[in-house]
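Hmm, what's this shape?
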Amino acid sequence: MYKHHFALNRYPFEPSLPPDQLFQSQSQQEALMRLGQLRQARGGIGLLTGEPGCGKSTVCRQLFAGLHSGEYRPRYVSLTTGSILDLYQVIAQAFGVPPARHRAQAFLSLREEFSVQHREARQLSILVIDEAHYLRTEALEEMRLITNFQMDSEYRLCLILVGQTELRARLEMNVFESLRQRITARCHIGSLEAEEIPRYLEHRLRLAGAEIPLFPANAIEAIAQASNGVPRRIDRIAHLALSAAAIEQHDQVQLEDVQNAILDIQS
């Protein structure tokens, strides 16, 4: 498509970037710092929320990339919408624990796995549950119980619940009072600030080998307004705008190229 036209070595707005090349917004940096403090505390429960496309998965990837493999054992699970037993089975598979047929057995097996790993390998297990806003009420409460090692002197599991903004509001319900008290790190990721959007575009283009600016100020402004600063939306608009510019043989992305990209997305 436009890669040859703009002399790029790859498509700049594809999602598959290594963690050390990802752009960090101010809110993402703050979230990573807070979750890092949770890790340094060697356990507890963290809450990471944000609107779709704002970079929650980016923060999790960067968090995992910064973990020493000898000290931590991180695992990631998602789309856990079933029963408590279903949730336990997904977690057990992630940690390599044999599946159990009954809820109590699954609970004890996982607790034992976390304890043995901590005692014998001196590793803290870290469990990230993505799309946690889909979890059933009883499953959310069960996650508090599986982290409860208060009879011991140290945590065995660090749990990070990741979800959309509605998860924060949901956890304010009275039924989650005990869970809420156990959350020691709370972070929310917002959209990119206006001044961050040009830097984001420049960062992604530079990684792809761009040697000259490809988005003038009016094109950036149009992208900012149409995307509301959400990185995933920025990526899609910018990708389509570059395609439109290449088709028209433009040396830079023109405002009309961005407008055409926005129309393509809306149609």
About this structure: The radius of gyration is 22 Å.
